[in-house]
Protein backbone atom coordinates (compact mmCIF):
# COMPACT_ATOMS: atom_id res chain seq x y z
CA UNK A 1 0.00 0.00 0.00
CA UNK A 2 1.42 3.43 -0.98
CA UNK A 3 1.19 6.21 1.61
CA UNK A 4 0.19 9.65 0.35
CA UNK A 5 0.44 12.25 3.10
CA UNK A 6 -1.26 15.66 2.78
CA UNK A 7 0.01 18.31 5.22
CA UNK A 8 -2.23 21.33 5.86
CA UNK A 9 -5.90 22.10 5.22
CA UNK A 10 -5.12 24.65 2.54
CA UNK A 11 -7.20 25.63 -0.49
CA UNK A 12 -5.53 23.20 -2.92
CA UNK A 13 -5.92 20.21 -0.60
CA UNK A 14 -9.67 20.78 -0.52
CA UNK A 15 -9.69 20.18 -4.29
CA UNK A 16 -7.42 17.12 -3.95
CA UNK A 17 -9.81 15.55 -1.41
CA UNK A 18 -12.90 16.47 -3.46
CA UNK A 19 -11.47 14.77 -6.55
CA UNK A 20 -10.22 11.77 -4.55
CA UNK A 21 -13.73 11.23 -3.16
CA UNK A 22 -15.04 11.08 -6.74
CA UNK A 23 -12.31 8.70 -7.96
CA UNK A 24 -9.97 7.20 -5.36
CA UNK A 25 -6.73 5.59 -6.54
CA UNK A 26 -6.65 1.90 -5.58
CA UNK A 27 -3.67 0.78 -3.50
CA UNK A 28 -3.04 4.27 -2.06
CA UNK A 29 -3.71 5.18 1.55
CA UNK A 30 -4.41 8.88 2.04
CA UNK A 31 -3.80 10.83 5.27
CA UNK A 32 -4.45 14.52 6.02
CA UNK A 33 -2.77 16.39 8.88
CA UNK A 34 -4.45 19.56 10.13
CA UNK A 35 -4.62 21.23 13.57
CA UNK A 36 -8.40 21.55 13.28
CA UNK A 37 -11.29 19.97 11.41
CA UNK A 38 -12.55 23.34 10.13
CA UNK A 39 -10.32 25.61 8.05
CA UNK A 40 -11.37 29.20 7.21
CA UNK A 41 -11.49 30.35 3.58
CA UNK A 42 -9.30 33.47 3.44
CA UNK A 43 -11.53 35.40 1.02
CA UNK A 44 -14.32 35.47 3.62
CA UNK A 45 -12.17 36.21 6.69
CA UNK A 46 -12.69 40.00 6.54
CA UNK A 47 -16.47 39.43 6.23
CA UNK A 48 -16.36 37.24 9.34
CA UNK A 49 -14.28 39.82 11.26
CA UNK A 50 -16.89 42.44 10.29
CA UNK A 51 -19.67 40.20 11.62
CA UNK A 52 -21.30 39.50 8.23
CA UNK A 53 -20.69 35.75 8.56
CA UNK A 54 -20.48 33.23 11.38
CA UNK A 55 -17.15 31.38 11.63
CA UNK A 56 -18.74 28.04 10.61
CA UNK A 57 -20.09 29.75 7.47
CA UNK A 58 -16.61 30.64 6.17
CA UNK A 59 -14.98 27.27 6.81
CA UNK A 60 -14.33 24.10 4.86
CA UNK A 61 -14.99 20.95 6.90
CA UNK A 62 -11.75 19.08 6.22
CA UNK A 63 -12.54 16.20 8.58
CA UNK A 64 -15.77 15.63 6.63
CA UNK A 65 -14.02 15.99 3.26
CA UNK A 66 -11.33 13.53 4.36
CA UNK A 67 -13.97 11.01 5.48
CA UNK A 68 -15.72 11.29 2.10
CA UNK A 69 -12.40 10.68 0.34
CA UNK A 70 -11.67 7.62 2.51
CA UNK A 71 -8.67 9.46 3.97
CA UNK A 72 -7.52 9.32 7.58
CA UNK A 73 -7.82 12.72 9.32
CA UNK A 74 -4.83 13.17 11.66
CA UNK A 75 -5.33 16.11 14.05
CA UNK A 76 -2.03 17.84 14.77
CA UNK A 77 0.55 20.50 13.99
CA UNK A 78 3.49 19.69 11.76
CA UNK A 79 6.69 20.46 13.65
CA UNK A 80 9.23 19.22 11.10
CA UNK A 81 9.96 17.14 8.03
CA UNK A 82 12.96 14.86 7.42
CA UNK A 83 12.80 14.65 3.64
CA UNK A 84 15.69 12.19 3.30
CA UNK A 85 14.09 9.81 5.84
CA UNK A 86 10.60 10.43 4.33
CA UNK A 87 9.20 11.21 7.72
CA UNK A 88 7.07 13.97 9.25
CA UNK A 89 7.15 14.96 12.94
CA UNK A 90 4.08 16.38 14.64
CA UNK A 91 4.20 18.70 17.65
CA UNK A 92 2.64 15.88 19.70
CA UNK A 93 5.74 13.75 19.05
CA UNK A 94 3.90 11.46 16.61
CA UNK A 95 5.88 10.49 13.48
CA UNK A 96 4.33 9.74 10.10
CA UNK A 97 6.07 7.96 7.22
CA UNK A 98 5.21 8.64 3.59
CA UNK A 99 5.92 7.56 0.02
CA UNK A 100 4.46 10.74 -1.50
CA UNK A 101 4.08 14.07 0.27
CA UNK A 102 1.95 17.13 -0.49
CA UNK A 103 2.46 20.44 1.33
CA UNK A 104 -0.28 23.09 1.52
CA UNK A 105 0.58 24.67 4.86
CA UNK A 106 0.08 28.35 4.16
CA UNK A 107 2.36 30.97 5.70
CA UNK A 108 2.84 32.64 9.04
CA UNK A 109 3.93 35.94 10.60
CA UNK A 110 6.45 36.71 13.26
CA UNK A 111 4.97 39.78 14.90
CA UNK A 112 7.17 41.63 17.39
CA UNK A 113 6.41 41.80 21.08
CA UNK A 114 3.69 44.44 21.32
CA UNK A 115 4.41 45.59 24.89
CA UNK A 116 1.27 46.99 26.54
CA UNK A 117 -0.68 47.05 23.22
CA UNK A 118 -3.05 44.24 22.18
CA UNK A 119 -1.91 42.40 19.08
CA UNK A 120 -3.88 40.36 16.56
CA UNK A 121 -1.72 38.55 13.98
CA UNK A 122 -3.66 37.83 10.80
CA UNK A 123 -1.67 34.69 9.95
CA UNK A 124 -1.70 31.78 10.37
CA UNK A 125 -5.42 31.79 9.60
CA UNK A 126 -5.96 28.70 11.78
CA UNK A 127 -5.14 30.66 14.97
CA UNK A 128 -7.27 33.69 14.14
CA UNK A 129 -10.60 32.28 15.34
CA UNK A 130 -9.67 31.84 19.00
CA UNK A 131 -7.61 35.06 19.04
CA UNK A 132 -10.46 37.19 17.63
CA UNK A 133 -13.11 35.69 19.95
CA UNK A 134 -10.87 36.35 22.96
CA UNK A 135 -10.21 39.90 21.80
CA UNK A 136 -13.93 40.66 21.34
CA UNK A 137 -14.60 39.48 24.89
CA UNK A 138 -11.74 41.50 26.29
CA UNK A 139 -12.85 44.65 24.43
CA UNK A 140 -16.48 44.28 25.57
CA UNK A 141 -15.49 45.29 29.13
CA UNK A 142 -13.36 48.22 28.02
CA UNK A 143 -14.92 51.61 27.41
CA UNK A 144 -11.83 53.82 27.06
CA UNK A 145 -10.65 55.23 23.72
CA UNK A 146 -9.22 52.60 21.37
CA UNK A 147 -6.87 53.13 18.44
CA UNK A 148 -6.81 50.30 15.89
CA UNK A 149 -3.67 50.21 13.73
CA UNK A 150 -3.20 47.89 10.78
CA UNK A 151 0.48 47.30 10.08
CA UNK A 152 0.83 46.29 6.43
CA UNK A 153 -0.72 47.85 3.35
CA UNK A 154 -1.76 44.72 1.42
CA UNK A 155 -5.30 43.38 0.98
CA UNK A 156 -5.21 41.64 4.39
CA UNK A 157 -4.28 44.83 6.29
CA UNK A 158 -6.70 47.02 4.35
CA UNK A 159 -9.75 44.74 4.51
CA UNK A 160 -9.17 43.61 8.09
CA UNK A 161 -8.78 47.15 9.41
CA UNK A 162 -12.08 48.27 7.89
CA UNK A 163 -13.77 45.07 9.11
CA UNK A 164 -12.45 45.36 12.68
CA UNK A 165 -13.37 49.06 12.91
CA UNK A 166 -16.90 48.38 11.62
CA UNK A 167 -17.39 45.52 14.10
CA UNK A 168 -16.05 47.31 17.17
CA UNK A 169 -17.95 50.52 16.39
CA UNK A 170 -21.19 48.53 15.92
CA UNK A 171 -20.65 46.64 19.20
CA UNK A 172 -19.83 49.76 21.24
CA UNK A 173 -21.51 52.73 19.53
CA UNK A 174 -20.57 55.22 22.27
CA UNK A 175 -16.88 54.31 22.35
CA UNK A 176 -14.18 56.34 20.66
CA UNK A 177 -12.56 53.93 18.16
CA UNK A 178 -10.06 55.47 15.74
CA UNK A 179 -8.11 53.79 12.96
CA UNK A 180 -4.83 54.14 11.12
CA UNK A 181 -2.96 52.10 8.54
CA UNK A 182 0.84 52.11 8.58
CA UNK A 183 2.86 50.53 5.80
CA UNK A 184 6.49 50.65 4.78
CA UNK A 185 5.52 50.51 1.10
CA UNK A 186 2.51 51.80 -0.83
CA UNK A 187 -1.15 51.02 -0.20
CA UNK A 188 -2.27 47.90 -2.12
CA UNK A 189 0.82 47.58 -4.33
CA UNK A 190 0.11 46.05 -7.74
CA UNK A 191 -3.51 47.23 -7.87
CA UNK A 192 -4.77 49.60 -10.57
CA UNK A 193 -4.35 53.31 -9.58
CA UNK A 194 -8.13 53.84 -9.75
CA UNK A 195 -8.67 50.96 -7.30
CA UNK A 196 -6.03 52.40 -4.94
CA UNK A 197 -7.80 55.78 -5.05
CA UNK A 198 -11.09 54.05 -4.24
CA UNK A 199 -9.38 52.27 -1.32
CA UNK A 200 -8.00 55.58 -0.04
CA UNK A 201 -11.52 57.05 -0.20
CA UNK A 202 -12.91 54.06 1.74
CA UNK A 203 -10.26 54.56 4.44
CA UNK A 204 -11.06 58.25 4.62
CA UNK A 205 -14.78 57.54 4.92
CA UNK A 206 -14.01 55.25 7.87
CA UNK A 207 -11.89 57.98 9.48
CA UNK A 208 -8.62 56.08 8.99
CA UNK A 209 -5.32 57.96 8.92
CA UNK A 210 -3.04 56.51 6.23
CA UNK A 211 0.76 56.48 6.65
CA UNK A 212 2.58 55.01 3.64
CA UNK A 213 6.35 54.69 3.34
CA UNK A 214 6.57 54.47 7.14
CA UNK A 215 7.93 51.67 9.33
CA UNK A 216 5.93 50.95 12.49
CA UNK A 217 7.58 51.20 15.89
CA UNK A 218 5.80 48.94 18.42
CA UNK A 219 7.38 50.94 21.26
CA UNK A 220 5.04 53.81 20.28
CA UNK A 221 1.93 51.70 21.04
CA UNK A 222 0.30 51.82 24.47
CA UNK A 223 -2.48 50.01 26.35
CA UNK A 224 -5.18 51.77 24.29
CA UNK A 225 -3.80 50.38 21.02
CA UNK A 226 -4.95 47.35 19.08
CA UNK A 227 -2.44 46.26 16.43
CA UNK A 228 -3.57 44.20 13.44
CA UNK A 229 -0.37 42.60 12.21
CA UNK A 230 -0.60 42.02 8.46
CA UNK A 231 2.92 42.41 7.12
CA UNK A 232 4.27 40.09 4.40
CA UNK A 233 3.83 36.31 4.60
CA UNK A 234 6.69 34.38 6.19
CA UNK A 235 7.67 30.71 5.96
CA UNK A 236 7.18 28.42 8.97
CA UNK A 237 10.44 28.37 10.95
CA UNK A 238 10.96 24.60 10.50
CA UNK A 239 10.72 24.67 6.67
CA UNK A 240 14.42 25.47 6.29
CA UNK A 241 15.48 22.41 8.31
CA UNK A 242 13.35 19.96 6.31
CA UNK A 243 16.09 18.97 3.87
CA UNK A 244 13.79 20.11 1.04
CA UNK A 245 15.02 22.85 -1.29
CA UNK A 246 13.96 26.23 0.12
CA UNK A 247 14.28 29.83 -1.05
CA UNK A 248 16.29 32.44 0.87
CA UNK A 249 13.04 33.26 2.73
CA UNK A 250 12.49 29.59 3.64
CA UNK A 251 9.65 28.70 1.23
CA UNK A 252 9.68 25.29 -0.52
CA UNK A 253 11.11 25.65 -4.07
CA UNK A 254 8.96 23.92 -6.68
CA UNK A 255 9.19 23.36 -10.43
CA UNK A 256 6.53 23.87 -13.10
CA UNK A 257 4.80 20.64 -12.00
CA UNK A 258 4.60 21.90 -8.38
CA UNK A 259 7.19 19.29 -7.36
CA UNK A 260 10.08 19.99 -5.00
CA UNK A 261 13.13 20.92 -7.06
CA UNK A 262 15.25 18.53 -4.95
CA UNK A 263 12.88 15.72 -3.95
CA UNK A 264 10.66 14.06 -6.58
CA UNK A 265 7.47 12.77 -4.98
CA UNK A 266 7.16 15.86 -2.75
CA UNK A 267 4.75 18.57 -3.95
CA UNK A 268 4.16 22.03 -2.46
CA UNK A 269 1.54 24.66 -3.30
CA UNK A 270 0.10 27.99 -2.18
CA UNK A 271 1.79 30.30 0.28
CA UNK A 272 4.29 27.69 1.60
CA UNK A 273 5.77 27.19 -1.88
CA UNK A 274 8.13 29.34 -3.93
CA UNK A 275 7.49 29.55 -7.64
CA UNK A 276 10.14 30.92 -9.97
CA UNK A 277 9.78 33.86 -10.46
CA UNK A 278 8.02 34.38 -7.09
CA UNK A 279 4.23 34.80 -7.12
CA UNK A 280 2.31 37.04 -4.71
CA UNK A 281 1.14 35.18 -1.59
CA UNK A 282 -2.53 35.23 -2.53
CA UNK A 283 -5.29 32.67 -2.16
CA UNK A 284 -6.12 32.81 -5.87
CA UNK A 285 -2.85 30.99 -6.69
CA UNK A 286 -3.44 28.29 -4.07
CA UNK A 287 -6.94 27.76 -5.48
CA UNK A 288 -5.78 27.56 -9.11
CA UNK A 289 -2.96 25.16 -8.18
CA UNK A 290 -5.55 22.74 -6.72
CA UNK A 291 -6.61 20.91 -9.90
CA UNK A 292 -2.98 20.66 -11.14
CA UNK A 293 -1.89 19.29 -7.77
CA UNK A 294 -4.76 16.77 -7.76
CA UNK A 295 -3.79 15.57 -11.27
CA UNK A 296 -0.10 15.33 -10.40
CA UNK A 297 -0.61 13.46 -7.12
CA UNK A 298 -2.76 10.98 -9.04
CA UNK A 299 -0.07 10.70 -11.75
CA UNK A 300 2.68 10.24 -9.13
CA UNK A 301 0.65 7.39 -7.57
CA UNK A 302 0.00 5.63 -10.88
CA UNK A 303 3.21 6.47 -12.76
CA UNK A 304 1.44 8.76 -15.27
CA UNK A 305 2.87 11.99 -16.76
CA UNK A 306 2.84 15.16 -14.66
CA UNK A 307 1.13 18.31 -15.96
CA UNK A 308 2.41 21.89 -15.74
CA UNK A 309 0.89 24.72 -13.74
CA UNK A 310 0.68 28.05 -15.57
CA UNK A 311 0.10 31.01 -13.24
CA UNK A 312 -2.33 33.63 -14.47
CA UNK A 313 -0.80 37.10 -14.63
CA UNK A 314 -4.01 38.98 -13.98
CA UNK A 315 -6.71 38.08 -11.55
CA UNK A 316 -9.86 39.63 -10.23
CA UNK A 317 -9.45 41.26 -6.80
CA UNK A 318 -12.62 42.02 -4.83
CA UNK A 319 -11.82 44.03 -1.72
CA UNK A 320 -14.53 44.27 0.93
CA UNK A 321 -14.84 47.69 2.56
CA UNK A 322 -17.09 46.53 5.46
CA UNK A 323 -19.86 49.00 4.54
CA UNK A 324 -21.84 46.63 2.33
CA UNK A 325 -19.59 47.44 -0.61
CA UNK A 326 -16.48 46.14 -2.37
CA UNK A 327 -13.89 47.44 -4.81
CA UNK A 328 -13.41 45.29 -7.90
CA UNK A 329 -10.08 45.45 -9.75
CA UNK A 330 -8.46 43.46 -12.53
CA UNK A 331 -5.34 44.53 -14.40
CA UNK A 332 -5.76 48.22 -15.21
CA UNK A 333 -9.50 48.53 -14.57
CA UNK A 334 -11.52 48.96 -11.44
CA UNK A 335 -15.20 49.20 -10.44
CA UNK A 336 -16.25 51.07 -7.33
CA UNK A 337 -18.60 53.77 -6.09
CA UNK A 338 -21.77 53.80 -4.00
CA UNK A 339 -24.02 51.75 -6.31
CA UNK A 340 -21.49 49.61 -8.14
CA UNK A 341 -19.70 48.96 -4.85
CA UNK A 342 -22.85 47.37 -3.39
CA UNK A 343 -23.21 45.25 -6.49
CA UNK A 344 -19.49 44.26 -6.27
CA UNK A 345 -20.00 43.12 -2.65
CA UNK A 346 -22.96 40.92 -3.67
CA UNK A 347 -20.85 39.58 -6.53
CA UNK A 348 -17.98 38.77 -4.12
CA UNK A 349 -20.39 37.15 -1.67
CA UNK A 350 -21.83 34.93 -4.45
CA UNK A 351 -18.36 33.88 -5.71
CA UNK A 352 -17.15 33.06 -2.19
CA UNK A 353 -20.27 31.11 -1.24
CA UNK A 354 -20.09 29.17 -4.52
CA UNK A 355 -16.46 28.28 -3.77
CA UNK A 356 -17.37 26.95 -0.31
CA UNK A 357 -20.41 25.06 -1.66
CA UNK A 358 -18.05 23.09 -3.92
CA UNK A 359 -16.46 21.59 -0.80
CA UNK A 360 -19.54 21.33 1.40
CA UNK A 361 -20.05 17.96 3.01
CA UNK A 362 -23.76 17.00 3.01
CA UNK A 363 -25.23 16.50 6.48
CA UNK A 364 -25.84 12.81 7.23
CA UNK A 365 -29.35 11.70 6.19
CA UNK A 366 -31.84 11.44 9.06
CA UNK A 367 -32.05 7.85 10.26
CA UNK A 368 -35.02 5.73 9.17
CA UNK A 369 -38.16 5.99 11.31
CA UNK A 370 -37.49 9.56 12.48
C1 LIG B 1 -7.25 38.55 6.48
C2 LIG B 1 -6.76 38.01 5.17
C3 LIG B 1 -7.51 38.21 4.00
C4 LIG B 1 -7.07 37.72 2.79
N1 LIG B 1 -7.84 37.91 1.69
C5 LIG B 1 -7.45 37.42 0.51
C6 LIG B 1 -8.25 37.58 -0.66
O1 LIG B 1 -9.34 38.17 -0.61
N2 LIG B 1 -7.79 37.07 -1.83
C7 LIG B 1 -6.60 36.40 -1.91
O2 LIG B 1 -6.23 35.93 -2.99
N3 LIG B 1 -5.81 36.23 -0.83
C8 LIG B 1 -6.19 36.72 0.37
N4 LIG B 1 -5.39 36.57 1.47
C9 LIG B 1 -4.15 35.80 1.34
C10 LIG B 1 -4.52 34.34 1.54
O3 LIG B 1 -5.01 34.17 2.85
C11 LIG B 1 -3.40 33.35 1.39
O4 LIG B 1 -2.59 33.67 0.30
C12 LIG B 1 -4.01 31.96 1.19
O5 LIG B 1 -4.79 31.61 2.33
C13 LIG B 1 -2.97 30.91 0.96
O6 LIG B 1 -3.63 29.70 0.76
P1 LIG B 1 -2.95 28.34 1.17
O7 LIG B 1 -3.85 27.27 0.68
O8 LIG B 1 -1.54 28.33 0.70
O9 LIG B 1 -2.86 28.38 2.75
P2 LIG B 1 -3.96 28.58 3.89
O10 LIG B 1 -5.29 28.91 3.34
O11 LIG B 1 -3.36 29.51 4.88
O12 LIG B 1 -4.06 27.13 4.51
C14 LIG B 1 -2.96 26.55 5.17
C15 LIG B 1 -3.46 25.51 6.13
O13 LIG B 1 -2.35 24.89 6.74
C16 LIG B 1 -2.58 24.78 8.13
N5 LIG B 1 -1.31 24.78 8.84
C17 LIG B 1 -0.48 25.82 9.04
N6 LIG B 1 0.58 25.43 9.77
C18 LIG B 1 0.43 24.12 9.99
C19 LIG B 1 1.20 23.14 10.68
N7 LIG B 1 2.37 23.44 11.26
N8 LIG B 1 0.72 21.88 10.72
C20 LIG B 1 -0.45 21.53 10.13
N9 LIG B 1 -1.21 22.43 9.47
C21 LIG B 1 -0.78 23.70 9.42
C22 LIG B 1 -3.46 25.95 8.49
O14 LIG B 1 -4.21 25.68 9.66
C23 LIG B 1 -4.33 26.08 7.25
O15 LIG B 1 -5.50 25.31 7.38
C24 LIG B 1 -5.83 37.04 2.70
C25 LIG B 1 -5.07 36.85 3.87
C26 LIG B 1 -5.52 37.32 5.08
C27 LIG B 1 -4.67 37.10 6.32
Verbal overview:
With 370 residues, the protein is of the alpha/beta class. The relative contact order is 0.16. It has helices at residues 11-22, 45-49, 62-68, 125-140, 155-171, 193-205, 283-302, 338-358, and strands spanning 2-7, 28-34, 38-40, 59-61, 72-75, 78-82, 87-90, 95-97, 100-103, 118-121, 146-151, 177-183, 208-212, 225-229, 252-253, 266-268, 273-274, 317-320, 326-330, 333-335. It folds into 2 domains: 2-107 and 233-302, FAD/NAD(P)-binding domain (3-Layer(bba) Sandwich), CATH 3.50.50; 118-232, 3-Layer(bba) Sandwich (FAD/NAD(P)-binding domain). α1 packs parallel to α3 and α1 packs across α7 (283-302). A hairpin with a 2-residue loop joins β19 (326-330) and β20. The longest helix has 21 residues, at 338-358. The chain has 8 helices and 20 strands. The chain has a 5-stranded parallel β-sheet, covered by helices on one side. A 5-stranded parallel β-sheet has the order 10-14-11-12-13. The chain has a 3-stranded antiparallel β-sheet with strand order 6-7-8, with no helix packed on it. Bound molecules: flavin-adenine dinucleotide.
Amino acid sequence: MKQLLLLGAGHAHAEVLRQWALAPVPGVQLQLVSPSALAPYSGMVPGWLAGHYRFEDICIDFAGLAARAGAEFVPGDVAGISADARQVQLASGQRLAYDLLSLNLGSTLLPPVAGPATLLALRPLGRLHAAWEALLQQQADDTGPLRVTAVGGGAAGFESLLAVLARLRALQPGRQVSGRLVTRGALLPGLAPAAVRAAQAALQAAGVALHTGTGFDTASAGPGDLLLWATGAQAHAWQRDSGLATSAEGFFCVDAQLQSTRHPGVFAVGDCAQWSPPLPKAGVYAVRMGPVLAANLRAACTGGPLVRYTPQHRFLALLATADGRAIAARGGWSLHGPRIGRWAWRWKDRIDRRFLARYAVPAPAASAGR
